[in-house]
Amino acid sequence: MSAQEWIWLLVGLTFSLYIGIAIWSRAGSTKEFYVAGGGVSPLANGLATAADWMSAASFISMAGLISFSGYDGSVYLMGWTGGYVLLALLLAPYLRKFGKFTVPDFIGDRYYSNVARTVAVFCALIISFTYIAGQMRGVGLVFSRYLEVDINTGVVIGMLIVLFYAVLGGMKGITYTQVAQYCVLIFAFMVPAIFISFQMTGSLIPQIGFGATVEDGVYLLDKLDGLHKELGFHEYTSGSKSTIDVFFITAALMAGTAGLPHVIVRFFTVKKVSDARKSAGWALLFIAILYTTAPAISVFARTNLIETVSNKKYAELPEWFSNWELTGLLSFEDKNEDGLVQYVADAEKNELTVDRDIMVLANPEIANLPNWVIGLIAAGALAAALSTAAGLLLVISASVSHDLIKKMIKPNISEKGELIAARLSALVAVMLAGYFGIHPPGFVAATVALAFGLAAASFFPAIVLGIFYKRMNKEGAVAGMAIGVLLMLYYMTKFKFGWFGGGTQADWWFGISPEGFGTYAMVVNFVISIVVSKFTPAPPQEVQEIVENIRIPSGAGEATH
Hints:
Blueprint: H1 3-24, H2 30-35, H3 42-53, H4 56-69, H5 74-98, H6 103-110, H7 114-146, H8 151-201, H9 206-209, H10 220-231, H11 243-258, H12 261-264, H13 273-309, H14 319-325, E1 330-332, E2 352-354, H15 359-366, H16 371-409, H17 415-438, H18 444-468, H19 474-496, H20 517-534, H21 541-550
Antiparallel strand pairs: 1-2
């Protein structure tokens, strides 16, 4: 069978599976729609959490980013995995014991204020829309290559599919769909990695092949460093980012992970607190499989790309090159008209432009793997992007229907009415998400990194202080969240979109990139929250007792509310 036939077959089979699960597990109540009825097993929740969190950024873009930036890309590995440990140990069990449907629900009740709830809803919407833009671009990328349509059409197709099972199934449908999607995406990620590792180094384990020797006895990383030097790029294994920026980006990704509303809500779907801890452990294991493989794939892809394309005759390049040229994500301009592809660091002489988001997707084709592997990678990439997009859509719809309409605008709304509102808000959200997918602020991982910065700047301090600082009051939380998120939005739009006069890298505050600025905004949030709470009235006694109660470990295993 041809690669295209394999793609249609595997994508068709996996989509049929997702839609079948969505119909089988459709939500019949608001509790099923928001938290899957609260009865998901730790293993299933661990699988679903891993799929929810390992988005198009993890599957498609992270390895591509590391492939081009080398050592500098390690900040994403450290930040995203470290952040999950932070979430699992520091926040998840306590939030489950508090027992709410959403993060704004927790903040509204903990800070006994509808103003705090409104600010939290605003933050949840901003974070989710920024994050979902990256997912929709990932969906568009996959469809543009494999279904041979342009990226914008690909985004629209993805919107329709996500809308179907997110609106029909709610959290219940999404949870079991995500279990299936994790199995698809991890299989799709590992199979090409194992193939290429064996092909290049003789090792079946990519993590070992990554540090092994190639045919001529040279270590693979040394070989890649040599190729980089020849072409004028900085050494793959050395960094070019400043230490302060590496620290700030890593911290922003860590704190942002621990403050992401669509990941936190997963811990409300289990029966009890001990299950939240267990599912966090399972998720960490499932996430580690992909995250320890990504650096290996980056090195394999980068080495293969340079050896296959650099200084080769354009007319004799393999078929995969022309396939990706059709998408507009790979282009060759013969500046010196010698018919050879000059791929060098010097921008004036360089003739090859490669979108870094294509590296994982193109990797099996570059390595000349069997056609069924190419079909598998397409199905896996779609599973990664769609699983997270669905989780984010649910956060958006729950923020509108539950936190705004049910809790503030119309408290006496019927359960049926709330369910209709949730589904309608998901419909509007997917349309907006599609717009952001067509007009994203950057490549997938960079767009997603900004969402983590927003989460770090807004939710992380409010949640941590809400759990561990009894004196924390509504005035401090509202001031901290509002200033933190607005500061991050200002910096992000100034340096990413050119608003407020724009600016270049030379204008960055303290040398901190927009991806790392969430840490700065988070510190400002912490300081303002604590200072304001010191000079304003203490929270009511009953709120302080709630905070005391959720921190008590005794009997936590039996806690169901």
